[in-house]
Amino acid sequence: MRRCSFHIAAMAVFVASSMLIGCGGKAKDEGPPADTKLEQANTAGTQALSADLPAVAVRQYKLALARAYERDDAAAIGDVGSNLALAQMRTGDSKAALATVRETRTELDRRHADVPPELILVQAAASYRNGDTAGAESAATEVLGRAPTGSDVARRAWFISGMVAAERGDGAALSKAIAALPPVAKQSALDGDRPELIGRAALLDGRAAEAQAAFEQAAAERRESLDYRGMARALALAGDAAFKAGRTGDAAAFYLRAGHSTLLQGDKPAARTLLKRAEDLARASGDSRTAGEAARLRQSS
Questions:
Q1: Which of 110, 109, 102 is nearest to 85 (CA)?
Q2: pLDDT for the residue 28
Q3: Which of 11, 34, 166, 226 is 20 to 30 Å from 292 by CA-CA measure?
Q4: Contact 158, 141 (CB under 8 A)
Q5: What is the CATH number of domain 1-110?
Q6: Which portions of the chain are predicted below pLDDT 70?
Q7: What is the signed CA dihedral for 221, 222, 225, 229, rounded to 10 degrees?
Q8: What is the CA angle 97-102-106, rounded to 5?
């Protein structure tokens, strides 16, 4: 999601002409000097996010954003603002992410600067996570009007549109989103989007067994791309599908796996909900071991 136009431009190294005097050389103009403070903070934030340290990333991006404001650099404000909002989403604080998006958009409008599609995409994701499906759909539509067709940003906007359609029970809109997401040839965090939407469509149509298989595929692909939040969501959806298919024991196991991962990710309220569901279904199916493990994990949260 991260735009890097200003980052690349700022990487030019300033070479003083005095370094070339005496060598018979001539100073080469390599562009303006980099703002080291901005670059270092932004790079540190990106490295922290890659290392799954979103709280550290938030602190570094805030430093970088303050420097961007000090520079009154619209491009940097848009880029770093997108990065900060994404990091806040990764910490689970979607409300803070939405506040960052709104503040950044206001600052860009004040400077008559373009709003990066990546920033609007975070707005769509944060709105969805906050339960504002109308806001999520509106922002996703805006992204699709700005981002290049087939780009990763556009693909993720279609995914969010598909999730909104699934929640509304709009099969036609969900099918449209699936059609816009052909299988990708590279391993990335986007790989699980299409099978997840296919699973949601199958669930809407009452094809629970097909839905479960699609959600299991989505979970596996998200695991491979290190998207553990998305993996846990797909596991919980597989639990929903198994329950609708009448496989109570399988459903309990899926909820247990989703709850355990979610707990280790630090989202205790969501984890407790999943683990309680696992415990109840396991007891109903006579699986005392799964029920006991779910109870133990829930009590430790």
A1: 102
A2: 55
A3: 226
A4: no
A5: 1.25.40.10
A6: 1-29, 184-189
A7: -170
A8: 145
Residue 76 to residue 69: CA distance in whole angstroms: 8
The confidence score (pLDDT) of residue 9 equals: 36
Residue-level pLDDT at 191: 82
- Tell me how far apart the alpha carbons of residues 114 and 101 are, in angstroms, rounded to a whole number: 14
b/e burial code for range 126-151 (CB count within 10 A of at least 16 → b) = bbbbeebbebbbbbbebbbebbeeee
The tokens of 3 are what?
């735009």
pLDDT of residue 182: 83
Show the tokens assigned to 231. Answer: 């993996």
pLDDT of residue 190: 76
Structure tokens given for 234: 């797909």
155 sits in which H/E element = helix 152-168
Contact 139, 102 (CB under 8 A): no
Q: How many angstroms separate the Cα of 281 from the Cα of each of 142, 214, 243?
A: 41, 22, 9
Q: What angle do the packed helices 117-129 and 74-90 form, to 10 degrees?
A: 30
**What tokens were used for 187?**
């391993």
